Amino acid sequence: MSEREFDVVVIGGGPAGYPAAIRAAQNGLNAACIDEWENHDGSRAFGGTCLNAGCIPSKALLESSELYHRASSEFDRHGISVTELGIDIAAMQSRKTGIVKQLTSGIAALFKANGVTALQGHGRLLSDHRVEVTTADGKKETIGAKHVILASGSVPIELPIAPVDGQDIVDSWGALEFTEVPKRLGVIGAGVIGLELGSVWHRLGAEVVILEALDDFLFMADAQIAKEAAKHFKRQGLDIRLGAKMTGAVAGKTGVNVSYEDSNGKQTLEVDKLIVCVGRRPFTSELLADDAGVALDERGFIQVDEGCRSTAADVWAVGDVVRGPMLAHKGTEEGVMAADLIAGKVGEVNYDAIPSVIYTAPEIAWVGKTEAEVKASGAAYKVGTFPFAANGRAKGMEQTDGLVKLITAEDDDELLGVHIIGPVAGELIAEAVLALEFSASGEDLQRTVHAHSTLTEANHEAALAADNRAIHAINR
Ligand code: FAD
Ligand code: NAD
């Protein structure tokens, strides 16, 4: 029997893989996308970790929990009284599931509209660009392709001393599916997931203790922003314990018994649920036949060049399974780039202008270099900061925590980095990303008209402050 032939076959239908398939089809190529994602209820869906168990469900719960928190702690300041405020976790979860379903079925519709062949099953790259597809019922088919894009994503790193059982000790996916608010919640790892999901359940009433192995808090962020974040999280009541080396976690009848060591010696902690979120690792299980010719690096990522070409000719790899930050938008841009390069078009990802966002309250977002990185480069630089406490819109919103920090080069005023902690920082950072992408100077931002009254005026004032020209703050 002759094999089905495609121009492009994408293995993995997450935010790196499905846009690659759509762009390939937009480029006039005959594309297929294979995905094996299975939800806890047995249903299948495209969208990968991001849509099914990551970005989208977590943001739905972040919003619900934030609204609850604001209603209980802030509405009175607006002169709004609320009686008998309650939480219905089942309703919250069902809203979340509805959003996920809408978006994942949207991918199926986009595939159909663009003429992408959607295949549900496991894909395995063989030699000569052939891909073996195994469906859930075990049926096998081999398809051929001129180009293959590997987008198999990542999975949580497991801690053998705290094995996930899906009940009491859970990973991030399990933590998005709690059916009630745990009274005492432990979190291992004060990274992005620990802070986001720890905040969700804390706002809904859980006592949260986060154990972090490192002595530094949010080491990847600018130190001033990390310090500001630590202050706000502490004030909110999140108990973040740094320098805590886990020694074990055992689930029993009364909860989970966690043991760890810190500078004061051996410690124990009793919690009802424990979330293990200590990072993610690239997922390449059963992905590559021995003769596929695709090399992995020493950390298990598929080795690629700057254009996402793997070591095998016409085999590309994108998203969490390759080097770089494990972010949905980074994977999407890589997928689109690969599909454009395959079609002989221009394709490039600017790895120096990828924004990071941590969806806590206040939100944290940055792009470009931190002050420590700029300092380490030896170049002279300027810093401008502006607090949201001095921004009219932030005051109206009762969201005055945080600041914008902007770093420019002393010599040519080039914009080097922008770091924001404050309301909708993830939206505000978009202006800075565009400015970096267009190689803007600090003066370019200073001379750009920002609408009044908006939070973006804090970006504007921070740019002015770098040259001691802020209008609504006392300059140095
Ligand atoms: P994935 O999304 O992991 O998708 C890979 C897909 O490939 C999966 O469906 C998998 O089943 C399938 N697959 C793997 N191997 C095969 C195979 N051999 N055959 C067929 N199918 C296969 N990032 C952000 O940018 N913003 C956020 O707000 C954000 N929030 C997050 C919240 C949580 C709780 C988590 C866990 C992650 C979050 N992330 C966020 C990270 C984001 O989810 C990942 O960076 C993104 O999903 C990576 O996309 P990907 O396509 O590379 O991989
Ligand atoms: P992470 O790398 O952000 O944080 C893991 C934390 O766990 C680190 O601070 C690390 O020092 C700590 N740690 C490691 N081993 C430990 C141990 N034994 N005991 C205590 N602490 C330990 O990883 P994550 O939070 O699991 O998130 C995984 C990935 O998902 C991240 O790379 C992130 O890019 C992505 N993600 C992004 C978003 C977003 O964009 N908003 C949200 C969630 C996840």
Distance between the termini: 77 Å
* Shape category: globular
Low-pLDDT stretches are: none
Number of helices: 13
Q: What structural class results from the helix and strand content?
A: alpha/beta
| Number of DSSP-assigned strands | 22
Mean pLDDT: 97
Rg from Cα: 24 Å
| Helical residue percent band | 25-40%
**Which range does the strand content fall in?**
25-35%
Q: Compounds present? A: flavin-adenine dinucleotide, nicotinamide-adenine-dinucleotide
Largest sheet: 7 strands, mixed
Show the helix and strand layout.
Blueprint: E1 4-11, H1 17-26, E2 31-35, H2 48-53, H3 55-73, H4 89-114, E3 117-120, E4 122-125, E5 130-134, E6 140-150, E7 154-156, E8 169-170, H5 172-175, E9 184-188, H6 192-203, E10 207-211, H7 223-236, E11 239-241, E12 245-252, E13 255-262, E14 265-271, E15 273-276, E16 280-282, E17 315-317, H8 328-342, E18 356-358, E19 363-368, H9 371-377, E20 381-387, H10 392-396, E21 403-409, E22 415-422, H11 425-437, H12 442-446, H13 456-465
Parallel strand pairs: 1-2, 1-6, 2-3, 6-17, 8-15, 9-10, 9-15, 10-11
Antiparallel strand pairs: 4-5, 5-6, 7-16, 12-13, 13-14, 18-19, 19-22, 20-21, 21-22
Helix pairs in contact: 1-4, 1-8, 3-4, 3-6
This protein binds flavin-adenine dinucleotide and nicotinamide-adenine-dinucleotide.
Nicotinamide-adenine-dinucleotide (NAD) binds next to helix 6 and strand 18.
